Amino acid sequence: MSVESTIHQEHETAEVPLQENTHSGPYYRPNVDIYELADQLVVRADVPGANNNRIDIQFNDGALTIHAQVPARQDSQGLYLRQEYGVGDFYRTFRVSEQIDTSRISAEYAGGVLTLHLPKVEAAKPRKIKVAAK
Amino acid sequence: MVLRDTVTVHPLQQLRDEVDRLFTNVLTHPSVSSAARLVSGRGFPAVNVWEDTENLFVEAEVPGLKAEDLDITVVGDELTLKGQRPEQPETEAAFHRRERGVGSFTRIVRLATEVDADNVQAALNDGVLLLTLPKSEAAKPRKIKVQTDLKN
Fold it and tell me: Which CATH architecture has domain A25-73+86-124?
């Protein structure tokens, strides 16, 4: 039991999925901006060239996972004269500490940027406490 | 900007890279912290280049940029990609993470062959910029016919 949890721990730190994927090929880690507003958390991820219908977002148990499938853009036979980046699926997972109302999570994808809105549950919203003057 | 792995570059290209780097100039918006700078070592954006018999293709990933944010010019065998990633409007926000840079960039890419600058096409879809640069006539491969039996 303890051995299993150690392995689990290592995988978590490395941020790779525990299960094997059905297709081989590298996953790329998208750059993100995450910021907090009074009523929501906003995640913006750079995922250029993704298939709009194949962006999978999961929020389970405080873990937010983004998996965007990216179709190949170059003929696999073709040779690059110069290759500075690879084309492949994006994957990234985060631990989200705020309490999120999972039923109201929304996402949009435009210009290669995925924007996620994670609304906070009522209890997590900051509440101004009035200080009564005596 | 995106974490990518290996770069496959022809050895002679490395010399060109050094020259390109001299010409790469990246500015940051004064109010943005260094963590949000766009450039990453090689120069932004990263480009992939390939060809067929008719065209040279240059592709770059520029998520978050619109057509009006880009300024692309071609002179001879030199391609210049200039642009600006606009700053996000959120000012009241507390950032947990800030990895996506903002600011302006300039990247000069030396092309492998001469191209017909008048007929270059550029398409921007989902943050992927694809330039199709038709090769100039002189640069296209020409089949050489072998003549046999050259006897009088």
Answer: Sandwich (2.60)
